[in-house]
Amino acid sequence: MKLALAELKIGQKATILDVNTEEIPLKLLEMGCLPGNTAELIQIAPLGDPLYFNINDSHVAIRIETAQQIEVTL
User: Fold this and answer.
1) Could you tell me which residue ranges the Ferrous iron transporter FeoA-like domain spans (predicted)?
2) Rounded to whole angstroms, how far apart are CA atoms 48 and 25?
3) Looking at residues 10-15, what average pLDDT do you find?
4) Which residue among 8, 17, 27, 64 sits deepest, i.e. has the most Cβ atoms within 10 Å of its Cβ?
5) Structural domain of residue 45, as residue ranges?
6) Other C-beta atoms within 10 Å of 64: how many?
7) What is the pLDDT of residue 15?
């Protein structure tokens, strides 16, 4: 089932399928936000943005707009 990274619920793990490289900051790609890596939603900020993920053993805060550009599968 394909969905956006922003659609995960806390504790869910997903595998990254595709990344819109034109919309994703280079820093996220360098930190392991690449196809084939696993992402787990750890926490959501109190106001709902950003989302905190564990990607490739790195804790990464990603804005919802950016997370919607990353396609994952459960």
Assistant:
1) 3-74
2) 20
3) 93
4) 8
5) 2-73
6) 15
7) 92
Percent of the chain residues topping a pLDDT of 70: 100
Cα–Cα distance for residue pair 1/48, rounded to 1 Å: 24
* CB burial readout 21-52, b (16+ within 10 A) else e: eeebeeebeebbbbeebebebeeeeeeeebbe
> Domain tally for the chain?
1
CATH number of the structural domain spanning residue 51: 2.30.30.90
Strands laid side by side in the 13-19 sheet:
2-4, 70-73, 13-19, 38-44, 51-55, 58-62
Q: How much is the pTM?
A: 0.82
